[in-house]
């Protein structure tokens, strides 16, 4: 007769919003939900139960096969459960409330760990939890400034300088392209190229070398990072997004700051192979005032043609992308006298 009612099975239950577990004994899912909802203070209508490990829905038939003390989650009508691993990861991602305890535990495990893979995981965990990105001044985070010139008093000031240095380097390449002397036989062409270079340098100077890209104190869209200092890889030149979701916060630690130097501001339309040669080619038969230098400025120095990429996503082969021929020359509806002749600007 007792077999008709089923065997009473002890299980451990919890809700999806609380890690505390409770022991309950029930002969079927209906009884389990009745007891569990009362204990967890959940509405009985629409409630359902699933496995803690992987979120599998528990039916009456499945309930009979469960081992004693199986861990279950009771959910209300609109709640879902993706599994214990997902929950544990989400808890870890919100570990700011107890980050110090996790770091301490990870450091203790690391001291005795021999396996290289596990040591790497623990080290990365500690590095990300020991986040000092909220500190900005040298006096508050002296470790971050190790190796940084004493004139920099804030992290943002140094990061701005870092970006300016990179982009100023692009200007040097414009001023000294190898192909100038090779392909420009006339002194007039070289002179026009120098005029164009000076104009580009002045435009870049007025934009403060676009150092705002790395400065978290700037407003969007002038910066490439969040207010906290997080940068996200934008993927290689031929991708819309980074498939690996690379991210880094160079404001968080000295190690992250140093590693960020391996990230690249990559030209989609290549600087040396395409943009500079296109500028030089345009000046073979035109004056610098006829060339759309604003377009070349954008292609050389702005995020219109620059992508911030993790070193793994930086493809160094030929991009095979060309400048927009419609943008190379200034547009005008009138004619302009050039060297005794009249021609219409393109």
From TrEMBL:
Main location: cytoplasm
Domain CIDE-N positions: 7-83
Subcellular location: Cytoplasm; Nucleus
Keyword RNA-binding: no
InterPro entries: CIDE-N_dom (IPR003508), DFF40 (IPR039729), DFF40_C (IPR015311), His-Me_finger_sf (IPR044925)
Alphabetical list of SUPFAM superfamilies matching this protein: CAD & PB1 domains, His-Me finger endonucleases
Statement: the UniProt record of this protein carries the keyword Nuclease: yes
UniProt-recorded Gene Ontology molecular function terms: DNA endonuclease activity; hydrolase activity
Any single GO CC term annotated in Swiss-Prot or TrEMBL for this entry: cytoplasm
Pfam assignment, any one: CIDE-N
One Gene Ontology term from the biological process aspect of the record: apoptotic DNA fragmentation
Alphabetically ordered keywords of this record: Apoptosis, Cytoplasm, Hydrolase, Nuclease, Nucleus
PANTHER family assigned: CASPASE-ACTIVATED DNASE
Subunit structure: Heterodimer of DFFA and DFFB. Interacts with H1-1.
Its biological purpose: Nuclease that induces DNA fragmentation and chromatin condensation during apoptosis. Degrades naked DNA and induces apoptotic morphology.
Protein name per UniProt: DNA fragmentation factor subunit beta
Organism of origin: Collichthys lucidus
Lineage: Eukaryota, Metazoa, Chordata, Craniata, Vertebrata
């Amino acid at each position: 007769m007792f077999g008709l009612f089923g065997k009473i099975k002890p299980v451990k239950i919890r809700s999806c919003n609380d890690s505390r577990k409770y022991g309950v004994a029930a002969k079927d899912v209906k009884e389990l939900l009745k007891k569990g909802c009362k204990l967890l203070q959940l509405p009985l209508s629409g409630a359902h139960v699933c496995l803690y490990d992987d979120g599998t829905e528990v039916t009456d038939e499945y309930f009979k096969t469960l081992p004693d003390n199986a861990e279950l989650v009771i959910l209300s009508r609109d709640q879902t459960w993706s599994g214990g691993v997902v929950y544990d990861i989400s808890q870890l991602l919100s570990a700011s409330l107890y980050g110090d305890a996790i770091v301490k535990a990870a450091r203790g495990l690391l001291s005795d760990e021999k396996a290289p893979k596990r040591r790497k995981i623990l080290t990365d965990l500690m590095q990300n939890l020991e986040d000092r990105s909220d500190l900005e001044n040298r006096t508050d985070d002296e470790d971050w400034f190790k190796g940084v010139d004493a004139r920099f008093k804030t992290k943002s000031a140094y990061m701005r300088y870092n970006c300016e240095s990179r982009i100023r380097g692009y200007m040097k390449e414009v001023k000294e392209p190898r192909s100038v002397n090779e392909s420009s036989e006339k002194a007039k062409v070289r002179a026009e190229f120098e005029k164009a270079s000076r104009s580009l340098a002045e435009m870049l100077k007025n934009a403060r070398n676009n150092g705002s890209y790395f400065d978290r104190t700037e407003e969007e869209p002038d910066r490439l990072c969040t207010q906290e200092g997080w940068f996200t890889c934008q993927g290689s030149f031929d991708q819309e997004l980074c498939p690996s979701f690379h991210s880094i916060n160079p404001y968080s630690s000295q190690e992250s700051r140093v590693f960020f130097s391996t990230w690249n501001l990559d030209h989609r339309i290549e600087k040396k192979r395409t943009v500079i040669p296109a500028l030089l080619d345009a000046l073979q038969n035109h004056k610098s005032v006829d060339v759309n230098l604003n377009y070349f400025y954008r292609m050389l120095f702005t995020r219109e043609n620059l992508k911030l990429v993790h070193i793994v996503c930086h493809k160094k082969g030929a991009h095979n992308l060309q400048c927009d021929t419609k943008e190379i020359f200034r547009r005008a509806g009138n004619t302009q006298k050039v060297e005794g002749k009249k021609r219409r600007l393109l």
